[in-house]
Amino acid sequence: MIRLLRVRGQSLTPQIEDGDFVLALKLPIFFSIQAGELIVFRKAPYGVLIKQVEHVDEQGRVFWVRGNHPDSIDSRTFGVVRAWEVLGKVVARFSKS
Amino acid sequence: MIYQIFDWIDRRLPLRRAKAHCDIPCGIYDPITAQIAALTVVRIIDLMKDLEGREAVSKLDYHNSMSRYIAIKEEHAEKAKQEIRIIWGDYIKPQHLEKYPNLHEVVHKIMGLGSKVRQTTDRQIAEQFVEAINEFAQIFWETKGIATKRAKAPYAPSLELVYPVLE
Predict the structure, then answer these.
(1) Interface confidence: ipTM more than 0.90
(2) Which of A24, A35, B99, B133 could cysteine-pair with A40, CB 3.0–4.6 Å?
(3) Cβ contact (<8 Å) for A9 and B21?
(4) Which residues of B58-72 are buried (b: 16+ CB within 10 A; e: fewer)?
């Protein structure tokens, strides 16, 4: 499954800027997420978020995420992200500049 | 090119949003508040000098107006410094510093001039304060890939400010 999304907010700046487009990919098999990658996930009550993976558990099913901004809403706020909440990992970014 | 195509699609068939938000309304950074505060300092120095030259004003009124001018000058010099500190601390990242290695120096200059304009009524120093913040604004907008222009502020003291050129 591949999704095209538009990013809103600046917690990932300058890596990802407000208004950028990203392609997020999720495959049923042979799909792994590593620390340092960007993922798009659904997290109640925040909705669909995009953050950088800081740490992955041994099974690769639980992720700790963070933004670049000190006030970013991330795992410090809502805890871990589970594999079933992940909509995909970012495989391409399209920026205005 | 691809961005423009996606943007065109998004305006007609809005795509899903992926939020990269913070727990405060972050991302609202704009050096214009610091620029206006610095401009206010220059304006207040002009008003102070104008008041000093007036003869037909009572001692009481003179002290009343002068003390208000001084208070405003203090407040706006500090406000300009604070706004720059916020952008510097919250927005500026190591990547920006790699590209603009003189950025710390510019900020330090602003801090020094911001203190100096509180200590004196030297218009030249106040103008340097405005210019140093312009220099910061120019870099700030460049980090966002936004072009800038210089134009005279449409109010006294009509000094040049750096403005973003927005679509």
Answers:
(1) no
(2) A24
(3) yes
(4) eeeeeeebeeebeeb
The CATH homologous superfamily to which domain A2-94 belongs is Umud Fragment, subunit A (2.10.109.10)
Asked if A72 has any chain B CB less than 8 Å from its own CB, the reply is yes
User: pTM score, two decimals?
Assistant: 0.58
Question: How far off is chain B from A60, nearest CA to CA, in Å?
Answer: 22
What domains does chain B contain, in order, with CATH numbers? Answer: 31-162 (1.20.120.400)
d(CA B148, CA B153): 14
| Residue linked to tokens 């610095």 | B38
Give the dihedral of Cα atoms B38, B44, B46, B48; nearest 10 deg: -150
Chain A hits for B27, CB-CB cut-off 8 Å, are: 9-11, 13, 18
Mean pLDDT of B19-28: 64
A4 to chain B: closest CA residue: B15
| Residue tagged 């208000």 (tokens) | B68
- Which residues of chain A register pLDDT less than 70? 71
Secondary structure class of A66 (helix, strand, coil): strand
Residue in B10, B19, B95 closest to A14 by CB: B95
Residue count of chain B, please give it: 167
Are the C-beta atoms of residues A71 and B24 closer than 8 Å to each other? yes
Looking at CA atoms only, how far is residue B119 from chain A in angstroms? 34
pLDDT at B125: 98
Q: Write the CA distances from A53 to A3, A88, B18, B146, B153, integer angstroms.
A: 19, 12, 15, 29, 45
In the predicted structure, residue B23 carries a pLDDT above the cut 60? no
Structural domain boundaries of chain A? Answer: 2-94
